[in-house]
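Hi there, hope your week has been kind to you so far. No rush at all, and the record is pasted right below.
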Amino acid sequence: MPLATGLRIAAGEKSAGLHLHAFEGRAPGTSRPGAVRRQLMALVGVLALACGLASAPALAQSRPKIKVASLTLPVFNPIVWNIMKARGFDVRNGFDLDIQPFPSISAFYAAFVTGEVDALAGGPTIFQKFRLEGVPVRLFATGLKLSDLVVFARDPAINSLADLKGRQLAIDMGSSQYQMVAIYAKARSLNLGTDITTVNANFAVSRAQLEAGRVDAAMVAEPLATMIKAQHPEWKIIYNGNDGWKQITGQEGWEIVAALRDEAIKRIPDAPRRLTAALQDVAQFINTNTDEADRIAVETVKLPAGVLKEAVSSRRWDFDVRPIAGNDRKVVWDMFERAVAAGFLPRLPEEDIIYRAP
């Protein structure tokens, strides 16, 4: 039945025969009760369809979209975001995750700086630098601990960073991991670049340099560290980021934290809460359904089977998500202070770089 006809029936036009006496059969020429009931049911169906079509866009609009930067490399960011999307943790927490992949770390960070994406998981001191440069960044949740970061050496005589004095270390000098290693080294009266010769290379190239014997050590992060241990069990881990940070501060630090641009929070006021909850769902899933998480990593970023599972079970991949508050806030702020003391950054950022829930 056309919608216009249905509306005329609802209005009670005589030609439709829907007056009360039609139900009682008291007036000749009126519709039979059965026919009237069929007309009413058709009308209800038409009106329900119309209401459904009207409400569908409203339902879609009620779930906001959050754009996140990811990488095309088999590292932390794509693994976490792909699991969130595959398991529907975004929808479960009231938003649609829009993953924007980038082929390099520089492009990945640049997308956040320019506002191409709303959210990013990255190094605390990188975000500190952005804030000092005027980027409206707000850190809202913890993420990956520094145990993810390791330095490998081939020579059995090399047992620590101090043993690298006068030797060569392949390390990505544009990464937040480099800053963490440099801050630790400085606390041990070592300077990267002078006491230890640094060769600028990303994680994969650093590994290749060490395999070829062109350098004495290489800095990498998970899950590449687990892949190296499987292929080169004779290589030694001479530095673990979490252990090193505890030595100089007495507590664990964060390699990766989660951040949103301020305008994204203004557009979606509870975005920090929603995204924190979704990341917590991912962390719990990885820890309690590790085999399934490993399978998703294999399918989405082509990580070899079993690598993510081993990284998690070894506790090098330690993904622990909480709102940045209390002691976690102090830890992150301490990282900012140490970056300034080490000369990486000129000053501390404004305190509101760390988001406080209203």
Q: What stands out?
A: The first helix runs from residue 3 to 11. The chain has a mean pLDDT of 87. Residues 3-61 form one domain.
